[in-house]
Amino acid sequence: MSRSVFTAPIPLPAPELGIRAGLFAGIACLLMAGSMLAEEEPRQPPRRPDGLLECCNSSHASVTAESLSDQRCVWRLPDGSLLDTETDSLLTWGTCPPWPVGSHLLLVDGGVVAGRLESIDDGRITIRSPVVGRMSLPRNAVAGYRGTAASRPPIAAEGPVVDLANGDRIMARSISARDGIASLSWQGGVVSIPLERIHAFDLTGIPPAVSRSAVTTVRVALVDGSRGPLSLFGEATPVDRVLAIRVDGGCGIDLTSLEPIDISGLDNAGSRAGLSRGRTLSGAPPEIGGRSGFSGLGIRSRATIRYRFESPIVRFESSLAIDDAAKPGGRAMVRVIARSIDGDRRQAFASAVIQAGDPPIGIRVDLDQAREIDLVVEAVEAEDDPVDTFWLDPLVIASRRVSAAP
Known about the structure:
Blueprint: H1 14-40, E1 50-55, E2 59-68, E3 72-76, E4 82-86, E5 90-94, E6 104-107, E7 112-114, E8 116-120, E9 124-129, E10 133-138, E11 142-146, E12 161-164, E13 169-171, E14 174-178, E15 181-186, E16 189-194, E17 198-202, E18 217-222, E19 227-229, H2 230-233, E20 242-248, E21 252-254, E22 262-264, E23 275-277, E24 287-288, E25 291-292, E26 296-300, E27 303-322, E28 331-340, E29 345-350, E30 354-355, E31 361-378, E32 388-397
Antiparallel strand pairs: 1-2, 1-5, 2-3, 3-4, 5-20, 6-7, 6-11, 8-9, 9-10, 11-17, 12-13, 12-17, 14-15, 15-16, 18-19, 18-20, 21-32, 22-27, 23-26, 24-25, 26-32, 27-31, 27-32, 28-29, 28-30, 28-31
């Protein structure tokens, strides 16, 4: 005869039950007290980014932005006082963040807007920015779109060109999108595909660099990696989301917005095959050694690029390195030559040997009222292969408004 065996819980003695109950009650009280303290403790506002503010004739460290506009900017100095400045008296402030890693639009002027693509029609392209919300941009202001940072380099073809997530490429006659569906017109007809399957597209091929405007342009870089004219994002953009600014057209001029008066030493002398403006010679956005900027010049070795100015300039500054895409072992030397009002030429800067993979070097040289400058990239040895250099955010500064010679 078999017997069933049952296992019953062993009752705890009364004192032990009391200890456990008291322990649970104590923990509950502590949790409630912590919750009450957390509710009573006021939330601190996010700390505004600070940085070095460079003006035409002065500089200020650890400055935060209070308000930004195309006419005036207000800054808070470390002692708490406010500094009100005319915008065209500014040069730079802050540090550019890394480029967007997710989806983003490439702008014709070299800028970029991070966000999710929503619609495309004949006149406008709409994107939802995580910083400023929905933005509707003129279609002719947009050069292309990239789904990820990995698809960032421009497509070397005339647009519209569309790359799909599966690796297919469509030479489209037109592209439109609405409600998550893209319509592509091509020689085979019209095809509709989910917008999320588009990996990248270019509307115009590699966009040309935009010549300098006659008016002062304030460019801003946002926390999500977006950058472009302040007017594009709107002056209502939260100032605590701006990490850097650059003013072009006051006493500082971005060299990438100017046409050189002479190019020598490149392959097919006089051609622009070894010169790029606004992006590297490999087609990537302005970035070297993990440091990004607003713009830049790509110059291949054994080249001299000459600029002339109507007004004398007092300083040149830039960050320089071998292009990140250059082959290992590439090397070069660079010089900056200045010509004075009297026609005298002098060497304002000469680098040591720069190797591929070296961190960027900072160039900041006085030019003593120069009317011309030469940017020279030289081979170290005669048998060295040409190598691409990149000059990040090259800027010339004058004590008053400066322009390029016609």
